[in-house]
Design brief:
Blueprint lengths: L1 H12 L30 H16 E4 L2 E4 L4 H8 L4 E3 L8 H5 L7 H21 L8 H26 L29 H18 L11 H14 L3 H14 L10 H6 L12 E5 L12 H5 L7 E3 L1 H5 L11 E4 L8 E4 L14 E5 H14 L3 H12 L12 H15 L6 H7 L4 E2 L10 E2 L15 H6 L4
Length: 476
Amino acid sequence: MKNILIKTVLACLLTTSILTSCSDEFLNEAPATLVPQNAAISTEADMLIALNGTYRALNTVVLSGSTITLYGRNVPLAGDLLADNVFVSERNSGRYIPFSNYTFNQSNADIGDIWSASYTLILRANNIINSSVSGGNAANINQYKGEAYAIRALAYFNLVRFFAKPYTDDPASPGVPIVTQYDPFLKPSRSTVAQVYTQIMNDLDQAYQLQTQYRGSAFMSKYAARAIAANVAMYKADYATALTYANDVITNSGFSLLNRAEVGAYWASGTPNSSSVKRETLFEVASNSVNNAGNDELVNIYHQQGYGDMLATPELYNSYSEEDIRKSLISNSSRVSGENPAYIVNKYQIPFGAGDISDKKVIRMSEVYLIAAESAYRTNSETTALARLNELASKRYSTFTFASTGSQLLEDIITERRKELAFEGNRFHDLNRLKREITRSSVYPATARTIPYPGSSSLPRYFPIPERELNVNPNI
């Protein structure tokens, strides 16, 4: 499969427009062994075209004629559905039921798609990182390479969290293959979890060093890379580094938190921030009326004008107080021939066909403050932890402030992380890094209401390597 992915990626990068889809017809243009690794990129303009195609792959890719999603839907949805934030409505289109029921296995198509699309994304980023460009603007070339490093790091961060044990459990356990060079004959073995995290942090450091421009929230930037690195460090339990990086973003990036009054309009908009706006979103995967996953966009699985299959759990809805503005992002409603009440997710409000489709947030300032709060607590600075938590609380509650100490302060931080980042794909990974049981209510199938940590063969806490990958790579 890697051979097919590599051929497909190289062919896609040779196209002259990021709007051109990539399908089987490109596989026969030239044998992969005759295509130089950097054939598609020889100028600054080539690099930008390739980079735009790489951003597109963050949302969707086309392999063998089929469109598959990463942030288009699969990645953010799985991160909530596998946990306790959302569930499949009794009136549904049949999508993602194995994730809700914990009946997924090596042949699950959505799992295979996350794997295949992630490595396609990595190979596109590799082609930019490894390219040799003569002439052009050196600052632009460094910027584009820095963005590619950040994208590759993000792809590996998702892969290692979905397909391996958390670092906090066993960093020496099998992770995922690290592929950084073009080799059509490569059949890589799995690197350890620790090795994958080292690769991620090295890539993010390169991204931080190389980037000097902010091109808007739909593109990686110096401080988006630093914020992601803070999150990665927290997932490693390297809390000192996580705190340092989070403070760097808070102090030096120029980005600010949303005010309480802005929350509704923020989530109602489908337009990324321009290069002149540094507000809340450090990086998001953008969709619009042309570049999108069609009916497979994340918004359509939540929106009642789409499939509307996914509902918020009653427990999550009830965790928001009346003075918490975030409660307005879930409607207490009902579904015809379905749940009553039905807690309908309103974070994604612009469905496919309605214009500039709702984008998918990857890293926001709110999360950076929560990373700083948790990391400060875990490095024995409760005063700082409480202050960071209340800085966010002042932007979400009308009057409430936290005064907790000790273990209750940590629980408050983790709970606020759940409430702030709900429906953005983080909850499952957080419960894994914390090595906590997933406790679900009666809205889930009886056989999948308690998912213990570290899990079991029948209730796994991470995905199996896809069967189609095992069939072609004996080294994995």
